[in-house]
Amino acid sequence: MNTRLRQVLGTDTFLPYWLLLPTLIFIGIFFLMPLFNAVILAFRSDEGVFTLEYFQRMVGDVRFIEALKYTFFLALTIVPIQVITALAMALLVNAGFRGSRFFLYIFALPLGISDLAAGLIWLSIFTQHGFLNSILYSLGIIDKPIYYISYQNIGLTFLAVVAAEHWRATAIVMVILVAGLQMISKDYLEAAEVLGARGWKKIWYVILPLLKPSLQSALIIRTIFALQTFAVVLALAGDIIPVLAGEAYFWHFFYRNSHIASAYAVLLMVISIGMTWFYLKFLKSRMEVIRG
After folding, report:
1. Is residue 38 part of a domain?
2. CATH classification at residue 181
């Protein structure tokens, strides 16, 4: 029996699944179980009765509309800027000139910094007596501090959050695009140059169409993360700019209502699934369209 079991476990058929088992266990414990519990808390009362009361209270919350608005504003602002910046960075890394790979390590440095730490770093830049005001004052550009983060300058506060999140998370998109560029055969690029496609034309007509699967993956991942942006917003703006993830946090830890916090989490999950479906539906590569 033991010999038979060793033979089954050692076959090439089952070995990949055994290698995936630790990852599946991790996902099940730390993602699927919390997700299942959140859905139950959002739809079931303490008495065990199915209810939509918590969603009604969530929608009736005075900060709900503002949180929904700023969550979408942040995603719509951050994601396009990051994709464009990451594409430029990836093209630079993949250019092939001497020392180009060095830029990969420089660009990837923010990946090692947590969300909260990144927010605190940029808070030290934008605060009233931060680095930016100090530099502008020493250059004689301003004679008194500019309040970048305040209720009176919500627009500047929003831009500060965008700048911090752009710096922190663009590297994620860049790594995906660099991997996609590495998969493009040099034969296509050489053929394009022979036919006269150089510079911007080669990027637009050759690289971007072949890079569409990687762009699709990067957009899905980055949009989901942008919708869940919280720690950077909390560190920089506090409650000046409410977001859905932040409201879920406040309802759970400050107001001690896990049901409404779970309702916010379920809403974020539904929005993320909807955005993923949108990208998969409308950003198909040409081969996928032909097969479909």
Report:
1. no
2. 1.10.3720.10
Q: What is the DSSP string of 195-245?
A: TT--THHHIIIIIHHHHHHHHHHHHHHHHHHHHT--HHHHHHHTTSS--HH
Distance CA 155, CA 23 (A): 42
The Cα–Cα gap between 192 and 201 comes to 9
Asked whether residue 266 is domain-assigned, the answer is yes
Q: pLDDT tens digits for 32-89?
A: 898 899 999 999 988 888 999 999 999 999 999 999 999 999 999 999 999 999 999 9
CB 229 within 8 A of CB 74: yes
Residues of the domain holding 120: 50-291
Structure tokens at 261: 């916090």
Q: Write down the mean pLDDT value for the chain.
A: 86
Cα dist from 235 to 86, 141, 144, 230, 239, whole Å:
24, 27, 24, 9, 10
Structure tokens that stand for 94 in this block: 């993949």
Token pair for residue 172?
A: 């994620």
243 in any annotated domain: yes
* Encoded tokens for 240: 């000046």
pTM summary value: 0.84
The answer to whether the beta carbons of residues 142 and 133 sit under 8 Å apart is yes
17 found inside a domain: no
Of 153, 106, 107, the closest CA to residue 126 belongs to 153
Beta partners for 44? 50
Q: How far apart are alpha carbons 4 and 263 in whole angstroms? A: 49
- Locate 6 and state its tokens: 């060793």
Between CA 270 and CA 276 the distance in angstroms is: 10
Q: Specify the number of domains making up the chain.
A: 1
